[in-house]
Amino acid sequence: MEELYGLHPNAGFAAEDLPGLIASAGYGALAGDGVEGLVGDMKARIASHPRYPRLLEAYIDCQKVGAPPEIATVLEDIRREKGAAADEGLGSGADPELDEFMETYCGVLRKYRSDLARPFDEATTFLNAVEVQLSELCRPPSRAPIPANCEPDDVVGSSEEELSGGEGEEYKGEDRDLKDKLLRKYSGYLSSLKKEFSKKKKKGKLPKEARQILLDWWTTHYKWPYPTEADKTSLAESTGLDPKQINNWFINQRKRHWKPSENMPFAIMDSDPPLTAGD
């Protein structure tokens, strides 16, 4: 039963909710001061009940609604580990009130799962329909196949005649009008998406070539990897990055991969002229 309690922090079988479960199962008279002593016993009785596998299955079905595939797989593995569900009509016989409670609660969970799945399924259907419509709008106009028995001159002549003032021009005009309407209607939304994508791109990894140039500079100046302003300007020109990106890269690189030795200041003074730290 512990797996059932631990699947979700808001699960209906949390220990603090057991007084209500006990009361609804017909133990209201005992659900007062001595409820702590009944918790373990009640858990064991529910877990050993023949309908418990059905209860667990109904609960996991609720958790699987809208869950990512990997989470749904884990939940399904947990359900399978409990074995095949017992016959729904089979009761323990020793406690009719607990039998009724288990049957009622299974029905409640199945209804809850249905209510959860309905809007999710409707949203999925709607998004699939929108995706199909957008694919149709973005598809280039198809050209009619050339019959095998037509001469090249006939094909060229007929194509020019059709495209010059026939249905081809009319189709192109309608297609252009539709695209213009869509652009006018969704231009603001597309602009915001473009800005959002550009922000995410800036926050992502640096280009491979630019990163290699920075690594080469890092390897050459490993003893004192603090580029001067002139170094940063040169690196910006060769990598195409802005100074802030370069500065942040060196800060992160030093934090992760560089630790100055105790005699580092003396080695720098003996070998090279002092560098102006750009950070």
TrEMBL record:
Q: Entry's InterPro entries?
A: ELK_dom, HD, Homeobox_CS, Homeodomain-like_sf, KN_HD, KNOX1, KNOX2, TALE_homeobox
Location of the Homeobox domain: 197-260
Q: Which residue spans does the record list as DNA-binding? A: 198-261
The protein depicted here goes by the name Homeobox protein knotted-1-like 6
The organism named in the record is Apostasia shenzhenica
* Recorded name of the encoding gene: KNAT6
GO cellular component terms, semicolon-separated: nucleus
Where is this chain primarily localised?
nucleus
Localization (cell): Nucleus
Compositionally biased region (Acidic residues) = 151-168
